[in-house]
Amino acid sequence: METVAPPAVAARPRLHPAEFLLDVLRGVAQVDFMPSPVTGLVFLVALAAAGWQYALYALVGCAVATATAHAFDVDRDTVSAGLRGFNGTLVALSFAVFLGAGHLSTFCLAVGGAVTVVFVTSALATILGTWNIPTLTAPFCITASVMTVAAPSFARVWHSGPGLAALPQPASDTTRLDWTQIWHGFLANFGQIFFMPQWYVGLIFLAGILIASRTAAAMACAGSAASLFVAWALGSPSRGIAEGLMGYNSVLVAMALCGVFLLPTAWSFGYALIGAAGATALTAAMTAFFTTFGGHTFTWPFVLTALAFVAAVPALPRLSRRP
Amino acid sequence: METVAPPAVAARPRLHPAEFLLDVLRGVAQVDFMPSPVTGLVFLVALAAAGWQYALYALVGCAVATATAHAFDVDRDTVSAGLRGFNGTLVALSFAVFLGAGHLSTFCLAVGGAVTVVFVTSALATILGTWNIPTLTAPFCITASVMTVAAPSFARVWHSGPGLAALPQPASDTTRLDWTQIWHGFLANFGQIFFMPQWYVGLIFLAGILIASRTAAAMACAGSAASLFVAWALGSPSRGIAEGLMGYNSVLVAMALCGVFLLPTAWSFGYALIGAAGATALTAAMTAFFTTFGGHTFTWPFVLTALAFVAAVPALPRLSRRP
Amino acid sequence: METVAPPAVAARPRLHPAEFLLDVLRGVAQVDFMPSPVTGLVFLVALAAAGWQYALYALVGCAVATATAHAFDVDRDTVSAGLRGFNGTLVALSFAVFLGAGHLSTFCLAVGGAVTVVFVTSALATILGTWNIPTLTAPFCITASVMTVAAPSFARVWHSGPGLAALPQPASDTTRLDWTQIWHGFLANFGQIFFMPQWYVGLIFLAGILIASRTAAAMACAGSAASLFVAWALGSPSRGIAEGLMGYNSVLVAMALCGVFLLPTAWSFGYALIGAAGATALTAAMTAFFTTFGGHTFTWPFVLTALAFVAAVPALPRLSRRP
């Protein structure tokens, strides 16, 4: 006679603290798709170069999200790869940048947001999993948009004076790009994924990517260059280009569509460049949209472009998903 | 020799008027998830306490939606449980509240809206059924948002002078809560699900829930209390808290996530409280969003929070859906 | 011993130029659901009656999209039916109308947009295919909305002075309709699907539909008449009604719900009229929504109404999808 043991939740081996730390570092690195603890460390160094509080928020956000996922027994392989931590990193960091890192209210919200984003991720994973589409940074975008749009309605959260809501206006600044702006913008595109406009911070991020994958670093550069060209050609004000505001989404799109989710081929390279160009236009559109109610663009343009372009692959036989 | 009878639509037994009336009362009760005709009656009494027209609109909206579902041969068990009526209740009632109950145009729109919302519900049921996610009040939110945003463009529908569209502003009113505001807000949170700010109306609604389910009433109270605390802690203006505007979504979220759709356990209780807190922030965010084009928040925050938190359950082994 | 030949992408027979031209003409006709090259030609004549540039943009947009679909090896039957071209037609044409047909920047964007819309279509086809829901003009709406909302942020793209973003205002113009406005509006409803307000252009479009299908033409007329009545009854300003701005979505909804996607029956006829009425209200709502950030309504109201009403069919046994 055989008996079947019940699926015992408590039977899972306990998590070693060192293992947990590695999960967290992989989570920080997964913001740029890299499941490498070393890359995560380099990313924290990059953030510290902009301000130690930013590195702290990124680390705490990732740790809280990873711990939440463990507490609710999320599939351990998924968590170990850092895939339940990176949205927490970005949520906590975005609160630090947009609500002020020095306020206790911001820290409490960062912890709460990092818990919540795990559930949002699980929800999107259930739904998008139907078509084998990854959730990307959509959970971060949702959670951070909600809180930053809500913030001015809460007196103990909002310390920034008047709200940000305004009617979008046509571009009126100069569109002339000089050489310094070009290379600053090229590097800032890597840093703005983590909300940082400094060129040297972007350079450290690029180094972190390069440590984990040469293809990914190459595609990050291709995406950055493509967005620089498209933004200039369309006539985007040069100040925003130099701060990386027009290109960080294209960096992620290019990496996602050629190497990370699709096999790197000549066809997927062209596809990635079209996606990078589209993400540049989408960045301007979403910025106009969010302006009216005081929201931020975050990585929404990357999320929407990459979701669509990955979802399209089964109908486009020239392209293949990575196994 | 065998013949196969065609699936005869007309062969269904006719619906008895008393049965139809019970379906409609269950529909009114289903706004708060309770498939109980007695609860439906109590809810109508609560609305009549605020104004007899409101009870009338709620009844007519539910009757029209239920009749439409029967006419199009929607699955009878679904309709009998009140699940095709409650969105009609809310659509008709919202038109009465926001377009003026005394206008003939409002009444005609309420009937038209209650017909339309049945099709919207069927559409969402098809799509969300893929993941076994309930449609909640999403069909109401969609239909009512469309009509209230459209209303100022129609001279024979809009009797309220200037439009509502404005840029959202940061909170500037006082955030001090006195004792009266606390208990008023606690009860108004139940009434605002039906757009009613009076504390005694909310009390009757709570009584209606209690008649059908003690767990549901307890979770409704927990959700209301959680949102009171979160709204106060974040610094929401006290006037809105006292009118129940910050908490009605949390009431529904707490009921949905601990008892109605998830088995009530310690884990789902905590999960429901996190959801209730999240819904409070989402309420402020969506209010800012809708302000720019003159829309209302309705139960969008509940719908989005509960959809996400229910969709997440398969990925969170600590939680279980109700069979 | 048997060997299995690999699925050779290159083995597909080359496409004959005449065949390609027919695919493109069918694509132009598919804007109104008609897979007929003759109808496509008549539509181009209608556009040329409004301005030769419009016919050119429509043709180029459709050709670029069809060629892109062939290049990425999209299923040939789908492309031959014109189903990967019609969104390209609308994207290119909308850029000509809203960004100025005479600018080189507009032409380049039209080509880029027609390439991109193929990928957006493939993505939506993957996702909506789960429920056997067609993608309709959603890919066009997405792509054109992104670019027209983004345009004012780009100095080399935007040649129209101040932006369009404004707070929506209640209707204040006269709502009296005279006979000329009624028949102008009835015909303009067909032309506005292609952004053209002239009654005679609308008449040629109706002739093009009639050539391909009498049912479709009859439903187009029914949808146009229904929207005229609903817009008048609700009190929409007469100027917009006469230019076809309140009714073009209802024309498409009525065709889609009675004949194109659903079997034409008395029930689906009534269903189509309810949909046409709903689309009229949705048109006003979406116009208010897009006004705040300078977007256009395009055929969003048709897309959303028809998606919902088609998705609802499996739950409504009175209605049947076309096989």
Strand-helix topology:
Three copies of one chain form a homotrimer.
Chain A (H helix, E strand, L loop, with lengths): L16 H13 L7 H14 L1 H20 L4 H5 L5 H14 L4 H25 L9 H13 L28 H13 L7 H14 L1 H21 L3 H5 L5 H13 L5 H26 L8 H12 L12
Helix pairs in contact in A: 1-2, 1-3, 2-3, 2-9, 3-5, 3-6, 5-6, 5-7, 6-7, 8-9, 8-10, 8-12, 9-10, 10-12, 10-13, 12-13, 12-14, 13-14
What does this structure look like?
3 copies of one chain form a homotrimer. The first copy, chain A, is an all-alpha fold and 323 residues long. Chain A has 2 domains: 16-165, Ammonium transporter fold; 166-323, Ammonium transporter fold, CATH 1.10.3430. Helices cover 64% and strands 0% of the residues of chain A. The first copy, chain A, is built from 14 helices and no strands. Chain A has helices at 17-29, 37-50, 52-71, 76-80, 86-99, 104-128, 138-150, 179-191, 199-212, 214-234, 238-242, 248-260, 266-291, 300-311. Chain A starts with 16 loop residues before the first helix and ends in a 12-residue tail after the last helix. The model of chain A is unreliable at 1-9 (pLDDT under 50). The A-B interface holds A 9, 71-75, 105, 112, 115-116, 119-127, 130, 145-147, 149-150, 152-158, 161-163, 165-167, 292-294 and B 130-131, 167-171, 175, 233-237, 267, 271, 274-275, 277-278, 281-285, 287-289, 291-292, 307-319.
Main attributes?
homotrimer; 323 residues; mainly alpha; Ammonium transporter fold; 14 helices; 0% strand; globular; disordered N terminus
